[in-house]
Every structure is written in structure tokens, then in C-alpha cells.
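INFO batch 0412 | record 1 of 1 | parsing
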Amino acid sequence: QVQLAESGGGLVQAGGSLRLSCVASGRFVSTYTMGWFRQAPGKEREFVAAHSWRSVGLYYAEFADSVRGRFTISRDNGKSTVYLQMNSLKPEDTAVYYCAADSTRAKVRDCREYDFWGQGTQVTVSS
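INFO prediction complete | emitting C-alpha cells
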């Protein structure tokens, strides 16, 4: 089992920045795909970003079109932590953000592929 705990959410004005953190514990390994998803009220959970292992020290990052160029994803395996840096935030970024872990690299944009989930952290962007 892997346990995930998100932090860093909050209230920010449009144009501002936040950095979300996701700390993994338990049987977490550095080859896991780590994803960030979000869910706004009344909407389905949607893909935001993923960080997938390719080879030793090499990872591949991908992003939803809506956040590409504004968000970055990174990880510190020594701390078992994944980060989501969110810049130029917009009111439409308001949602609960979830961290997820998957032992494979298949369909990283599909939330159904992920085995482990955190409890989520609220991000609210005011206009």
C-alpha cells in the first residue's frame, strides 16, 4: 500500500501562484507514475499533469492543454514528494486537487489507471 498526503492548497488571487506537495509513504517506489487531477463542483475529475519514470533519473512530464505553460510537475525521490507548481492561476483552476500514484505507465491521463489517491487539497482562485 501507498499513502499519499497533499498540502499547499489555499486561496489566491487570479495571476498568483501556489505550489502543491504530495508526500508518499508506505511501499512507494521512484518508478511510480505520479499524477495530479482536479475536480470542481459538479464536474468530473480531470487530468492535470503526470510525471512518469522512463529510466534511471529520467522522467517524462505531460500536462493537460488547459494548464500547459502555466503548471510544472517535479519530484524529489529522496523526500518521496511530488510537486505541482501552479503559476498564472485563473478562476477556472478552482477545484480540489488530488495526487495519485500508479505502478504502471499506461494511460497516465486516465484516473481509473491509478491505484492510490490522496485526500485532496482545495485550491480557490478569486477574480
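INFO post-check: The chain has a mean pLDDT of 95.
INFO record closed
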